[in-house]
């Protein structure tokens, strides 16, 4: 099966924040499969001197900037993740830019038989919009996610909990999933699970 890119099979990697999506994407990349990181795209569209960053400053003011003029992502997160209106305004600025760039990158990779794209906020609409053929869900327990956000990313526990509360519910992701991998263990265990998915992909 191939979606809007015709012969290219587009596979989405999704999961809650801190579940290990980036690690999974890395395993696909090391297997020689082209990948797109939504997190990298999200940073690109609000890079210094970008239209995206200028739009955010128009909405939230210069307090969201670091001393060097770049976006202070931590400060912005603290502003919006306990504020439904602020989060909506953030999404109104960034989501169209992220969508446009990912679609552009998918088109650039349209000669590849398979492309894997990380999409944290995945639902039926997003699947149709990006022409997703199959979905891999990365799962992790609430305790492990919180531990990673606090210990690995240095988040304040209350900020981490606020971020976790606005994630897409597991039930929504599970309805879309062809594959599911668990990331409550170590990276070797996760890599073994992803290797099995990659073998199945190569067989079809």
UniProtKB/TrEMBL annotation:
Keyword tRNA processing: no
Catalytic reaction annotation: 3'-dephospho-CoA + ATP = ADP + CoA + H(+)
Gene Ontology molecular functions: ATP binding; dephospho-CoA kinase activity
Main location: cytoplasm
Record-linked NCBIfam families: dephospho-CoA kinase
Full protein name: Dephospho-CoA kinase
UniProt-listed GO biological process terms: coenzyme A biosynthetic process
């Amino acid at each position: 099966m191939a979606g809007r890119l015709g012969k290219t099979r587009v596979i989405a990697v999704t999961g809650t924040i801190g579940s290990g999506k980036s690690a999974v994407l890395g395993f696909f990349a090391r297997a020689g499969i082209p990948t797109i990181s939504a997190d990298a795209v999200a940073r690109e569209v609000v890079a210094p001197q970008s239209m995206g960053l200028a739009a955010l400053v128009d909405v939230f003011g210069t307090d969201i900037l670091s001393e060097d003029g770049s976006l202070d992502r931590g400060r912005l997160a603290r502003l919006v993740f306990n504020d439904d209106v602020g989060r909506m305004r953030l999404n109104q600025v960034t989501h169209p830019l992220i969508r446009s760039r990912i679609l552009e990158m998918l088109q650039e990779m349209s000669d590849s038989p398979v492309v894997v794209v990380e999409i944290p906020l995945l639902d039926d609409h997003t699947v149709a919009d990006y022409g997703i053929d199959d979905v891999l869900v990365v799962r992790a327990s609430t305790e492990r996610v919180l531990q990673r956000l606090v210990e690995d990313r240095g988040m304040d526990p209350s900020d981490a909990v606020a971020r976790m509360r606005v994630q897409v519910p597991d039930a929504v992701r599970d309805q879309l999933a062809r594959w599911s991998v668990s990331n409550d263990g170590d990276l070797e265990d996760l890599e073994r699970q992803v290797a099995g998915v990659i073998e199945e992909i190569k067989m079809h």
